[in-house]
């Protein structure tokens, strides 16, 4: 007789839980639905912007450093890169131009043979060309001799011949352009993937601590690679800052022992 009375609050509890559960599921489904819809939408917008930009003039340059001391090795690499550039060009929009800009410190006959010239692009209509800046002065810093620094430094120098470019691709020479690059203009600067912050190592924490020392904003990206593609001035300021940071890290975050040639790659993959 009375046995149904105590059951009522329990049923109410079950019903309430069910209602709450339904709300939670609904919330999650809606959240999923709207977020994926929004991502799709922005992806679609980005694609549309990209397609529209292929009907407008766009002048870009692949900027690279060729160490004259190892010219043979790097000219072989440049031959491959150049070939991929020629192939890529077959797919390029009519109003787009893509030059190769090679920084080096001497006139090399092999570059002339490849059709690379020592004069700048004169206007945005001129066909794609391979340009050599042969009077580049190596970045030399006291107590700091790192050959690869020049491959970043060339992207930092605002040489007058580079001013004509809307966008710059900072790349090493041992790379290729694919046909997809022919029509690719992302909405923001794009960078490749590199690997230096590994699970189980404190490399990222250490970088975060250094950024805090320098009053910088916390980083939201890690493992940034060495290929950068973006608006010229932005790439130039990133390269400039990278150079400053290289000097800073070399001065403050490596011991004398770590800087010795004999130490070699012992610091890898933690701090190298
Ligand atoms: C970076 O930019 C500053 C300010 O324009 C300049 O003084 C400095 O020389 C640049 N550094 C490099 C490595 O280009």
TrEMBL record:
InterPro entries: DUF7164. The chain crosses the membrane at residues 12-34. Residues 57-272 form the DUF7164 domain. This is DUF7164 domain-containing protein. Keywords: Membrane, Transmembrane, Transmembrane helix. It holds the Pfam family DUF7164.
């Amino acid at each position: 007789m009375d046995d149904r009375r105590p059951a009522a609050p329990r049923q109410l509890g079950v019903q309430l839980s069910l209602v709450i559960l339904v709300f939670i599921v609904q919330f999650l489904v809606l959240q999923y639905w709207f977020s994926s819809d929004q991502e799709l939408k922005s992806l679609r917008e980005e694609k549309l912007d990209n397609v529209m930009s292929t009907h407008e003039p766009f002048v870009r340059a692949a900027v690279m450093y060729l160490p004259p001391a190892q010219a043979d090795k790097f000219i072989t690499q440049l031959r491959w890169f150049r070939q991929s550039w020629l192939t890529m060009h077959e797919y390029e929009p009519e109003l787009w131009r893509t030059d190769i800009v090679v920084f080096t410190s001497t006139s090399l006959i092999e570059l002339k043979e490849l059709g690379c010239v020592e004069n700048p692009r004169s206007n945005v209509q001129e066909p794609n060309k391979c340009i050599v800046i042969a009077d580049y002065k190596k970045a030399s810093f006291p107590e700091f001799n790192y050959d690869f620094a020049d491959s970043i430094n060339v992207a930092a120098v605002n040489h007058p011949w580079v001013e004509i470019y809307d966008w710059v691709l900072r790349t090493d020479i041992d790379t290729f352009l694919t046909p997809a690059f022919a029509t690719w203009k992302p909405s923001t600067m794009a960078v490749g993937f590199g690997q230096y912050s590994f699970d189980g190592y404190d490399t990222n924490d250490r970088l975060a601590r250094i950024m805090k020392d320098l009053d910088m904003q916390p980083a939201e990206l890690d493992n940034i690679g060495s290929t950068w593609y973006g608006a010229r001035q932005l790439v130039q300021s990133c390269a400039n800052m990278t150079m400053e940071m290289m000097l800073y890290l070399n001065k403050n975050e490596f011991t004398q022992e770590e800087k010795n040639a004999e130490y070699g790659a012992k610091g890898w993959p933690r701090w190298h």
